[in-house]
Structure formats: C-alpha cells, structure tokens
Design a protein that fits this description.
There is one protein chain. The protein is α+β, with helices and mostly antiparallel strands. It is built from 15 helices and 17 strands.
C-alpha cells in the first residue's frame, strides 16, 4: 500500500523528496495493483505530456492505461518495458513505449525522475531507463548475443551480416521528436520507438530488407532489433539497431547553404532575373541541356550533387522493385482497390485542409492570404484533380516506398548521400504506410523539399538579397524547375535501365503532379497550424501544379 498520495509526491519540491512506500520487490512491482494505480493515474499523465516524443499535445488527455508490460533482463538485472495506451477526450488513442528502471543513487536519477519510491525496503527513483547506461548496455548485449529464430515473447535479433564489438560506451544521440536514439561504441545506433503500433515498424522492415536482403549500401546497415509479441499475437517493433554513418549533416542543411550562395550570386554576378531563361516543368534535362546562364548563376556543383542524389534514390527503388518472393515487397500493378483507398484518403485530407484554411484566414496576410483565397475559390478544381485518378489508364508498378522522403531524411557524407528513416508519414496509419505506392510518390516528396528549401532561403534571409521578394520568388521558381529537370533525367534513365516500370512519359508526369499536389495539400495543414507565414510555400506549390498545362 502506498503511504503517500500521488498528488503529494508529484508536488514534492526537488531536493530530498519523500518516497512512496510499496511492500514489494522491484521484480514484483508491476503486479502490485496499488503501485500501478498510482503510477498510471497521477504520475505518468503529468510525465508523459512533458516528453518531446509525446504526439498528443494538440489533444486533451483523458487517461492512461497499461496495455501490457514485459521484462527486459539479463541474469538478475531487470528493467520493465511498458506499453501504454493514452486515451484522449476526442475519442481516439495512441500507444507508447516507456522502459523504466529503479535506481537508488540520486546521481543516476538526475534526468527524467518519474517517481520517488521505496521498494523492498530500498529508497530510490523510477526513471526512464534509456537514461541509464546499464540498460543501454544490456539491450546491446542481448541483441548481439541473440539466438537465430528466437520464438520467445521478447525477441532480440542480430543480423547475420553484422560483426559486433564488445560494449564500450553509449550516449544519447540528441534532441529527437518522436523516438530516442542511442549511439553505441561510436559505431551503432539503437533507435527506441516511442510511438508504437500493433505491427512491425516500417523503418525496421525497410532497413532490414534494403541492407540485409538487397545489399543496398546507401542506407545505414541493419544490425539488429528488439520486438515484443503482445497478447493479441501482434509483433511490435520496440527498437532498431543500425550502423552509425559518419556525416556532415543532412541534405536539408546542405541545400540551404548551397541556395544561400546561389541567391547571393544574383547580386555578385549582376543578374537580371527577368532575363534568365526558363524551362518546362518536369522536362528531363542533362546538365548540358541547362542553359549556360543558369550554370553561371547557380554553379555546376549543385547539379552534380542532384544527379548523385537521383542515382541513390533510383537505386533504392530498384532494390525495392526487385523482390518476387516476399509478398510484402513484391511489385504490384494499380487496381480498383488502390484507387478507392487513395481517393477516400485524399478527399478526407483535402476537406480537413479546406476547413483549416477557412477557419484561419485572419492569420494570413500578403501573398499567403491571396493564395489562400485562390485555394478556396479553386477547391472544386483541386477536388476534381484528385478524382481524376483512373487506375485503368496506368501501366506502371506500385512498390513499397520510403513514404516520407525529403531532404531531412538524407545524410550527406563526403560527396555522397545516405537515405534513412523509413517510418512513413506521421499522419498515416501503420497499415496505410505499408500500402504499395508509385515510386514517384517519393520523387514528389523530394521535389516538394527542393521547393521548400528555395522558399526557406528567401524567408530566412529577409533583406539580405537586394531584390524584390517577387524577383526572388521568380528566380526561385525558375531554379526549382532546373533542379527537378536534372534530377528526373538521371532518375528515369537508371530506373528504366533496371526494368522498374514507372510508366510512360505522360503517365509519369500525371503521377508526379498528382503526388505533388497531394504532398502540398498535406504540408498546408502543418503550416496553417504552426507557422502561417510559411503557408505561402505549399499554396504556391498547389497553384503551380494546378496552373501547369502539360499534357497528363
């Protein structure tokens, strides 16, 4: 029985708080009803809502249930993995993974103290176990010593291609939103998934498939994993271990630096934006097809880098399109079921964005406001674009794809690129993330990321470039078209050489425009909710696609 109420403990000042007393050992704590009641109802509710990985901040938490728990142990060393169901007033729920440890030394409990307790007569603290080196060491050692074909409830797995080294050290990787990553020995990364689903995580599936099955080298190599078979017999991915790729940052930061130099070149080279030659949207361009005025302005290097990124992207899709045994990865053609799924999903999302824009017009001004009004006026035209999808006219294949492909998901290492984070779109259900899609959905994602980078450079450098915003937008839109043209040429050529069917030319352009419209509408919701000044980026992207008269 607890000798102190939960609310009293939660409000105990820092320093020397008095602990809850439970007449049970640590090993039996999760079976103690009084502890579980206090822990869930009053302590965890406050703790969980303060964590960066908690994804329910825009909703109202109703209560937390312990869906189930399991032990993460080695010999006498025991930790608990908790699967929490967070229920919301808005009548939905989310599941989270929280590993907990008991420590008696206050120095070990400096970070993330969840609850002061006395168990088995010993005073200490319950903390998030990922902050404890002994827990990180245990998980690593259980993975590297895992037996093949483990059939126990708590399953550790080691890749047959991984040659581990003994544990030396570990550290938290840094500030992440949705997961917690640990660097082991400076060579490996264990990613603990915080938001969990009753299925294998796509990041685990894709990582293992690409690096272990297909030998795709430009993604962190799969090394091992931890999963739990829950009471419904679902295989839930808890942690993924991969190779640590030394890098110079992600491609988003790289692109911003390059674009900063490119826009500075407008003044340095005395360029008149109105005289820069244009190009057709989605036209495939070899570098020699890019006008000398554009090369002189932007430089050759950025186009060479885009070719390299296109090559690595194509190689990913070639690997994903070459499987004919594992049905989870076997290519499929378009069909009626896919069309119904796609339209239902997009029309629901589009209506959600319409409501968001209508209810927040007063937060917009200038070009954002004008574009938002145009978006609302043309809503029927946009809706018809989504309804125009006719699977019977499409001859290409659908594959498992990255699903949330943008410059932030790409690492820069020397002169090369490495692709990572295959979890899929955060708004999508786990089932939707595994639906096979046209590979051009990923290409649409990276193109939208190029568009974002161009506009972010303009917004983040207000007053730096001595040109009107209209001229900067015009130059940016022009540059963006050359970027995607050079990328497309390399990508399509490689894909076709390896017999991955992404459709004929008109089909490719139709799918690209369709997927880019979908992506821009998706982005609009985020910008309207978090930074309305940036809503101009997806709104401009939507208008550009709608206005393009290229035959589809």
């Amino acid at each position: 029985m607890a000798k102190k109420t939960a609310s009293e403990a939660a409000n105990t000042p820092a320093g020397e708080p008095k602990a809850y007393h439970f007449d049970v050992t640590w090993e039996g704590l999760m079976d103690h009803q009084a502890f579980v009641g206090v822990f869930l109802s009053e302590v965890l509710e406050q703790y969980v809502q303060q964590q960066r990985w908690y994804g329910g901040k825009s909703s109202t938490l109703k209560y937390i249930e312990l869906q189930e728990y399991f032990k993460i142990q080695q010999g006498a060393e025991v930790y608990y993995g908790l699967l929490l169901e967070v229920n919301f007033e808005e009548a939905f729920f989310q599941h989270y993974f929280l590993p907990i440890a008991f420590v008696s030394d206050p120095d070990f409990a400096r970070k993330d103290r969840i609850l002061p307790v006395v168990v088995g007569g010993e005073e200490g603290f319950i903390i998030d176990a990922v902050n404890l080196e002994s827990f990180r060491r245990l998980v690593y050692e259980r993975i590297i010593t895992a037996e093949p074909n483990d059939t126990t409830r708590v399953r550790y797995h080691k890749s047959t291609t991984f040659e581990p080294t003994p544990y030396e050290s570990s550290r938290l990787m840094g500030l992440e939103q949705s997961n917690t990553s640990i660097v082991i020995n400076g060579k490996s990364v264990i990613k603990f998934f915080r938001r969990i689903y009753a299925d294998k995580n796509p990041d685990y599936e894709m990582s293992r498939f690409l690096s272990e099955r297909k030998g795709y080298r430009n993604t962190p190599a799969y090394q091992g994993s931890l999963s739990i078979i829950d009471t419904d017999n679902a295989n839930i991915t808890i942690a993924l271990m991969q190779e640590l790729i030394p890098n110079q940052g992600d491609a988003w930061e790289y692109m911003l630096k390059e674009l900063n130099k490119i826009f500075a070149n407008l003044e340095y080279k005395g360029i008149q934006v109105a005289r820069l030659p244009g190009t057709e949207l989605f036209a495939r361009l070899k570098i020699r097809d890019v006008p000398p005025e554009i090369i002189d302005w932007a430089g050759l290097n950025i186009f060479l880098k885009l070719q390299k990124l296109a090559q690595r992207t194509a190689e990913m899709h070639i690997a994903l399109g070459s499987e004919f045994e594992d049905t989870a990865f076997t290519p499929e053609h378009f069909n009626g079921d896919y069309e119904v799924w796609l339209k239902n999903r997009l029309l629901y999302q589009f209506q959600n964005r319409l409501n968001t824009v209508e209810n927040n017009l007063e937060r917009l001004q200038g070009p954002s406001l004008e574009l938002a009004k145009e978006f609302l006026e043309r809503k029927n035209e946009i809706r018809k674009r989504f309804m125009k999808f006719d699977w019977t006219k499409l001859k290409g294949e659908r594959l498992r794809v990255h699903g949330d492909y943008h410059l932030g998901q790409v690492l820069v290492r020397d002169q090369d690129f490495y692709l990572l984070d295959f979890e899929g779109e955060p708004e999508s259900t786990i089932r939707d993330r595994k639906v096979k899609q046209p590979p051009l959905k990923d290409i649409a994602g990276i193109f939208r990321s190029f568009h974002y980078a161009v506009y972010a450079t303009i917004f983040n450098n207000e007053g730096k470039f001595p040109y009107s915003r209209e001229d900067l937008f015009r130059a940016g839109e022009l540059l963006y078209r050359y970027f995607i043209g050079v990328f497309m040429e390399t990508y399509v050529q490689l894909i076709q050489e390896h017999n991955v069917d992404i459709g004929y030319s008109a089909e490719r352009i139709f799918l690209l425009k369709y997927c880019m419209l979908e992506k821009a509408v998706y982005e609009l919701g985020y910008e309207m909710n978090s930074r309305p000044d940036w809503a101009v980026i997806p709104l401009e992207g939507i208008r550009s696609i709608i206005n393009d008269k290229h035959d589809s």
